[in-house]
């Protein structure tokens, strides 16, 4: 993404070999993600939430049929090409029945947590201190959107966060997701 000549001086940095300025938007500037998302929103305008979802450089194209998927891919490719944006072939996956998108498993059945996240909870050791319990609750908190009455389910654990000198963890038990 090119930077206007007037703004290039704000990206300047010095080295022993001289002063340099970025000509294209580098990742790492505080405004880079917002600027890039704005560009992607413009490029995919009219397609987002109809046939595709976009978060920065992650684009998910969804279609009812394979033929429609080919048409949707063609439209997205044309728009990216017209803007000069390129895809990394190793990062692209086409015509998948399910995929990981932004840390979630997406399929025709809906949005689910990926199996490796579930396994991480199942294999997580039972907390033995308030600090370890906070860490465990942080891990469990990611699942709250998938578990009805999540707060009620974890209430017995959150009660243990109160400052008590008698915290006793269950050392031989593994954590589990509420049903």
UniProtKB/TrEMBL annotation:
<protein>
    <submittedName>
        <fullName>Retrovirus-related Pol polyprotein from transposon 17.6</fullName>
    </submittedName>
</protein>
<dbReference type="Pfam" id="PF00078">
    <property type="entry name" value="RVT_1"/>
</dbReference>
<dbReference type="InterPro" id="IPR000477">
    <property type="entry name" value="RT_dom"/>
</dbReference>
<dbReference type="InterPro" id="IPR043502">
    <property type="entry name" value="DNA/RNA_pol_sf"/>
</dbReference>
<feature type="domain" description="Reverse transcriptase">
    <location>
        <begin position="1"/>
        <end position="106"/>
    </location>
</feature>
<dbReference type="InterPro" id="IPR051320">
    <property type="entry name" value="Viral_Replic_Matur_Polypro"/>
</dbReference>
<dbReference type="InterPro" id="IPR043128">
    <property type="entry name" value="Rev_trsase/Diguanyl_cyclase"/>
</dbReference>
């Amino acid at each position: 993404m090119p930077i206007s000549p007037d703004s290039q001086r704000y990206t300047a940095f010095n080295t022993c070999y001289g002063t340099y300025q970025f000509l294209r938007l580098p990742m790492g500037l505080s405004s880079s993600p917002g600027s890039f998302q704005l560009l992607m929103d413009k490029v995919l305008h009219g397609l987002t939430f109809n046939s595709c979802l976009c978060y920065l450089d992650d684009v998910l194209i969804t279609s009812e049929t394979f033929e429609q998927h080919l048409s949707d891919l063609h439209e997205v490719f044309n728009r990216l090409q017209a803007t000069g944006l390129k895809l990394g072939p190793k990062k692209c996956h086409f015509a998948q029945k399910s995929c990981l998108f932004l840390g979630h498993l997406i399929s025709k059945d809906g949005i689910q947590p990926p199996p490796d996240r579930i396994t991480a909870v199942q294999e997580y050791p039972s907390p033995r201190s308030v600090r370890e319990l906070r860490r465990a609750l942080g891990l469990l908190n990611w699942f709250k959107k998938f578990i009805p009455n999540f707060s009620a389910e974890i209430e017995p654990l959150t009660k243990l966060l109160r400052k008590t000198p008698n915290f006793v963890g269950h050392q031989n038990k593994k954590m589990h997701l509420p049903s």
